[in-house]
Each structure stands twice: as structure tokens, then as C-alpha cells.
Design goal:
By secondary structure, the chain is mainly α. The chain contains 5 helices and no strands. The longest helix has 76 residues. The termini are far apart.
Length: 188
Amino acid sequence: MVSWIISRLVVLVFGTLYPAYSSYKAVKSKDVREYVKWMMYWIIFALFTTVEVFTDMFLCWIPFYYELKIAFVVWLLSPYTKGSSVLYRKFVHPTLSSKEKDIDDYILQAKDKSYDTLVHYGRKGLNVAATAAVMAATKGQGVLSDRLRSFSMQDLSSYQDPADAEPKQATPGQHRSRPMTRSKSEAS
């Protein structure tokens, strides 16, 4: 467990943060040699992190596995070994150069398919949303009209015209109330 934590920290600091800062310095100084050096490193490091996902699952039981990863990252960065440059020039560049056309075609097809898929599912999503909105509005309108109808029927059936109501006899000590009406001058 301790080896895993140390390897994660070393890879984070020396494999990511230090190269990121060095890349920043290369961009700031506009030194083409440094650009190329750090671009080769990032390509190799991207491949390393991709492979690392699988090797961490299956090879972590190997003795000194995490220490080997630390040594590999140091080897990639070392100005003496120029590990990332060696791997890039001997393996990655020749492989990518020979497969570049196929990779570009695959990426283009993936973009086209993903765009078509996005449009297809986007339309489906909009249709579902529109249908749901119409149904909610329809149901809501029906519920609202039923609710209004029930209120109006209830109000009509419980409503009594004050003129039709029999006047109550006031009990002693109770004042008889009468509706207040406004005069024409108060109303305007």
C-alpha cells in the first residue's frame, strides 16, 4: 500500500507537474527544441498512463512493480537517458507514421458516426420531451378544467342569495348585522 502511494505521488509530481511546468517554460521561451522534447514526452506519457490503467489491475502483484514504475518515469524524464525521446523515435513515430492514414480514417468515421448518433438521439430526445410537454399540458388542462368545474358547481350549490334567505331573529344582546353597501360616491 505504501509503495502504491509513493508511486502515485512520484508519477504525479515528476511525471505530470514537473513536465507541465517545463512545457510552460518551453512555450514561454518559444524554444522549438524544447517544444519538440516536451511534445515527445507528453505523447509517451499519454501512452504510459493508458497502459498503466491495465497493468495496475493485472500486474500489481509483481514484486517491486510500483518501484519499476517510478524508475520508468524517472528514465523518461532524465536528460541523460532521454527515455521519452528514445521511445518516441524508435517505436511510436515509426508505428504512427505507418498507421497514420488508417488512424485518420478511423477518427473521421468515428466523428461522422458520433455526429449522426448525436443528431439521431438528439431528435429522439426532443420528440420525447415535446410529447411529454404536450401530454402534461393536456392532462394539466383537463385537471384544471375539472377542478374549475367542480369549484363552480360547488359554489353554485352552496350559494344562497341573501334576498332569498329568511331573516334570523336576533337574540337578546346580539346585534343584527346587515351587509354594508357603498354609496355611489364611495364606489368611484
